[in-house]
Amino acid sequence: MSKQIVLNLGKGNLQQGFPTVVAQLWQADAPTPMQFTGGLPAAPELESFYQLWQQLYAALYASLSWRSQQVGEFEIEEEDVTHISQAEFEKLSQELQLSLNDWLNASAFLNIDRKLRTQLTPTDEIRLMITAQSDQVLKLPWCLWHFFTDYPQAEIALSPTEFTRSIKTVARNPKSKVKILAILGDGAKRPPSPADTLRVGAAYPQDLGDRQRINIETDRKLLQQLPNVELKFLVEPNRAQLTEQLWESGWDILFFAGHSSSQSKGQIQINQTESLTIDQLRYGLQKAIARGLKLAIFNSCDGLGLARDLADLHLPQVIVMREPVPDKVAQEFLKHFLATFSRGQSLYTAVREAREKLQSLEGDFPCATWLPVICQNPAEIPINWQELRGRRLGIQLPKPNTRQLPAVFISSLIITIIFVVLRGLGTIQPLEWQAFDLLMRSRPESDLDPRLLIVTITEEDIQSQGTEPRQGSLSDKHLNLLLTKLEQYQPQVIGLDIYRDFPVSSSQPELAKRMQKSDRLIAICKTTDVEQDPTGITPPPEIPVARLGFSDFVEDNDGVLRRHLLQISPELVSPCVTDKAFNVQLAFRYLKAQGISAEFTQAGLKLGNTTYERLKSPTLGYQSVDTNGFQLLLNYRSSPRNVAQQVTLNQIISGEINPSAFKDKIVLIGVTSASSGDYWSTPYGSGFAQRTPGVFLQAQMVSQLVSAALDKRPLLWALPQWGEFSWIWVWSLTGGLIAWCFHRNFYLIITLSISVGTLSGICFVLLVLGCYLPLISPILTLFVTSAQVAYIIKKFNRF
How confident is the model at residue 80 (pLDDT cuts 50, 70, 90)? Predict the structure, then answer.
């Protein structure tokens, strides 16, 4: 987990001590910090140690450089320091480290140290920022504090006492590359000397007088090896050229290699004759920061003064060297830092890793690991390489708190149980039906079933019968003409979806005989319904029970036909005594002719070698319905009227239809006239103009059974209760995890929207494949759980 500590030493200095030290601990998932207070005593000996160390550091490096090539003399304040061995310098460095840690172990500071450690773990990525009004205390090598040994993923940064966020004035266009403005100062065009030289003037800590040639070409090559960058090199530019580039839009990183110094004002040597302070570049830097500049790297000497001046401009992050730095050390640090940072590690992790890798050079360059330091604006969020590439797209993911995971799991489970209970009570069922209808309508249309043909009795067909005596929509004479024609065309089976609860008239004995003897003809009757039709409708007297099928449909509470009733146990008083549906009789007879066995067994509906279970209640897929008899979900082949080829009564009687269109097919005869009243609501529409004649629905049901047996077209099925409970819980948990990961409303809304789209897509694809999964309940639990977890996290972070 990422954590940030701001250690404010406040007023004071090493001579007088720091009476009020305040430590603030910020966690990634908490909007406010924890705060601890303490103090630090006076440590004049620490200040003396550090001043002596600085002098000996300068003298030692002058000696080392002199052994290869004369680099000039350093100004040494202590007259006694005329020579020093490396062993003596290392001993002094150890004493400085001990003195620093003794000071930080003072009793007045222990309260802060202990309370911080109770909130931290060794695996935490920690940004520890030190701020103080005394510049001298900030120059101390804080990286030597034993705290950093105990927390291997912690790194130090120096911060100003006053800070604010930089103001962004220009919106950035999305790009995939990091834009780097690289300034290669004096020395860039010349080859390196044989010696390891310092990136500082000849007199330390004087001005930038007789400078030594340094190998800046190595810096250039390291930058050019970075992935996904857009580089602009300024080689020994003049002031006008540098200022012009700073005003260009879009820099992410500003890099400088060359000579620098931090006297009263930090300054950089941009060419052989010009050195500039931050004030002299103020307006250009302000514009660059406003346009998105996030990081400045000064791979040069003595950069704390530069960082101090840049802090006034509210630049988010600066990396500098706290003391004069040998050329070799600067190059090695840059190499390791860029490699680690560009691989995606955080800025702090990359700096610590690169700094610690300098230890391999300390045999020749003592205290090399002390030199690099981050200067951080605490009001800004530290960046990483991915954010530099993707931050313009708003990609910034907060790190979740694993301690909140149990609350996420428990909340998701409780909310799932609540919604499952509500579904069991039927509360959510209307919404589920609407979602099912929408998904059904969204499926691609299938081709017409080539095994079926529908003969429609239209209003025109009814009127064309003239004054012939008839009871209902079709006179005996025209029915006889129709059946005679159809018998000649040799269909496999004929289904008469017209109620005839009266005998054939005596004037049509041929029709009566045909109805009694034709093995192809299946007729309908209607069973009793206590609520809607307590009497039922009797079958044609001429049709034996073996060629009868009930015409009953089962509607849901909203009047929409989504289920397929195949078999019932008829009541003893029912005029319709058959146990099989009209469409089942047609499908079974057709399949028998194709050599496919079809029957009802104890296990379910058996079509060939496949057995299908009936719809049970309650199931999570279908709630609170009467599932008596054998029911399936109706898997519409297409929009209801487009199930099969259609011809009219008059077209057949007048001989307009090719006889081959009927051969070996299932022919259904039904009334489509609006006056018949045989119209039903379907998932494809429930308005008056969208209602579907019953004969088309019978055709859909016949096609469902025949296609399942012959084409392996799936019947709709639902998961068992435990399966759909798990399905709903998965999405409830998803909502909780989203709220756990994304604390900002913008990211939360975007991610939830993507999740809803994904969920809808999964439900749609599975419905096409034959599996009906609930959609509304997972969506509701997704949102409710995310809201609940977001609320819990907000409350959790207050404590």
Answer: very low
- For residues 552-581, b (16+ Cβ closer than 10 Å) or e, as one string? bbbebeeebbbbbbbbbebeeebbbebbbb
Average pLDDT value for the chain: 87
Name the residue among 469, 465, 466 with its Cα closest to residue 482: 465
Residue 451, helix vs strand vs coil: coil
Kindly list the distances between the CA atom of residue 400 and the CA atoms of 122, 154, 346, 412, 435, in Å, as whole numbers in the listed order: 17, 19, 16, 17, 34
List residues bridging with 580 in a β-sheet.
567
d(CA 681, CA 557): 12
Closest CA to 495 of 402, 590, 566: 590
Nearest of 50, 264, 60 to residue 142 by alpha carbon: 50
Phi-psi category of 265—alpha, beta or left, where left has phi over 0 and alpha has psi -120 to 50?
beta
Name the token pair of 337.
Answer: 């830092």
pTM as predicted: 0.57
pLDDT at 197 over 70: no
Neighbours of 536 (CB within 10 A): 20
Q: Whole-angstrom Cα distance, residue 254 to residue 284?
A: 12
Give the CA angle between residues 185, 189, 191 to the nearest 5°: 115
Q: Which residues contact 726 (CB under 8 A, 6 or more apart)?
A: none
Q: Does pLDDT of 669 surpass 60? A: yes
Q: Residue 390: its pLDDT value, please?
A: 63
Neighbouring CB atoms inside 10 A of 603's CB total: 10
Kindly state the tokens that stand for 510: 């041929």
Q: Per-residue pLDDT for 201 more than 60?
A: no
Grouping H, G, I as helix, E, B as strand and the rest as coil, residue 38 is strand
Distance CA 153, CA 792 (A): 29
Token pair 């050329």 in the structure block, residue: 327
Beta bridge partners of 375: 158, 318
Contacts of 77 (CB under 8 A, 6+ apart): 55
- Name the strand (E) or helix (H) holding 262: strand 259-262
- Please determine, for residue 189, whether its predicted confidence score (pLDDT) is greater than 90: no
Q: What is the DSSP letter of 685?
A: B
DSSP string, 288-308: HHHTT--EEEEESSS-HHHHH
Distance CA 691, CA 685 (A): 6
Closest of 462, 542, 551 to residue 499, by C-alpha:
551
Residue type, 410: I
How far is Cα 649 from Cα 460, in angstroms, rounded to an integer?
Answer: 9
Of how many residues is the chain composed?
799
Secondary structure E strands in 666-784: 666-671, 679-680, 692-693
Residues 6+ apart with CB under 8 A from 222: 331, 334, 335, 338
Contact 416, 724 (CB under 8 A): no
DSSP track, 345-381: -BHHHHHHHHHHHGGGGTTTSTTGGGSEEEEE-TTSP
Q: 301, 325 in Cβ contact below 8 A?
A: yes
Average pLDDT in the 640-644 region?
Answer: 94
Single-letter amino acid, residue 135: D
Q: Nearest 5 degrees, angle CA 553-CA 556-CA 559?
A: 85
Rounded CA gap, 372 and 369, in Å?
7
* Among 691, 676, 702, residue whose Cα is nearest residue 456: 676
